[in-house]
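I hope you will forgive my troubling you with a question about protein structure. I set the record out below, with my sincere thanks for your time.
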Amino acid sequence: MRHKGGENLKKILKTITAFAATLTLLYLVSIGMANYFTPDSYKITAGTGLQWGSDAITAVTENGNDISTEVYSVPNKSYKAQLMLYHILPIKMVNVDVVKETMLVPCGTPFGIKMLTNGVVVVGVADIKTASGTINPAAVAGLKVGDIITAINGKEVNTNAEIIETVTNSKGKELNFSFYRNNTNFSTKLKPVKSETDATYKAGIWLRDSTAGIGTLTFYNPATKSFGGLGHGVCDADTNELMPLLNGDIVPVTISGITKGEKGNPGELRGYFTTDTPMGTLDANVPAGVYGSLNFAPKGGALEVAMKQEVKTGAAKILTTIDGGKPQYYDVEIEKIDYRDSVQSKNMVVRITDENLIHATGGIVQGMSGSPIIQNNKIIGAVTHVFVNDPTRGYGIFSENMLVVSQSVSAAALSKAS
């Protein structure tokens, strides 16, 4: 009997040990996942707390109190806080910046972009037929698609015409090309060759020094008279690289038609520049969108900007213009949210649920990028991309991320002006 009792006790102990090990593993996995999917830094408006996911994630002060209680209501200060899972399990220490409430005017209006590049983008290389055979001077020199030519023989270049003139007048003499690739400056020697076709000297490169397009304004900041739009940068159609901005304007646009989106074939808003008179100036073209200043304030009331942790899955609306009329609100669903610091633009998955919008456009189409997303009467983000295989769904960027960039661009522009 004692032997059986001992065996039973061993089984019970093994069961308890296995159960404890399973709980420990679940705890470590939960904490690991929570640590991976939660940011290391947050912004909150004065007097508010830090919690989301049906209060599954919260933050407490070093004294263990809710973050909104003590001195954390003081704006323009930064603090350390402990992120908690289910109010019990500590995840990690995080930085919390207390900021003033920011009010922005949601726009949803189409605008045209006219941009000159800072340098000249290489969009292709080509063989040149010469008396001694076919050669590609650009390839021999090591130039590649996506490179940005900034100077020739030490002289700055910003237009196709400047490069063509220099190459044509080279008489075949070696030229020193300065260029930019992968955030690094390089230089190379390029020897133009005489073309058999027209007896002129050529470098064997296709170039682009400007671009134009249509997008949607996201917001206007009355305090700085600045705007943010698109939610993603303007990229070259051939290289898919961000276009380096020298200067540019935005102009009014009239939407004249729609190509409906369908699976495998994204649609687009068709339109034309209403006038060449600028409505604003471009100051930045970055991965998070285009930013600059407006010459006049758009109509409409201002809404508070939501911090990323305030964004919830569920119902929301987008404000966009799909015809020659005014911006309209349409129903959407926020299906998924990615709070990680490393994700700067594709922060949420948005699904169009409004039957009127689906009937008119098929869902999200090109030209709608930048349409502001509104939830709980706050600006939470902007539409950025459409899913090619499902035009009713696409990505959105947090308005907090766009606001941070906009404030930085405005401060830089003000400093430059002074």
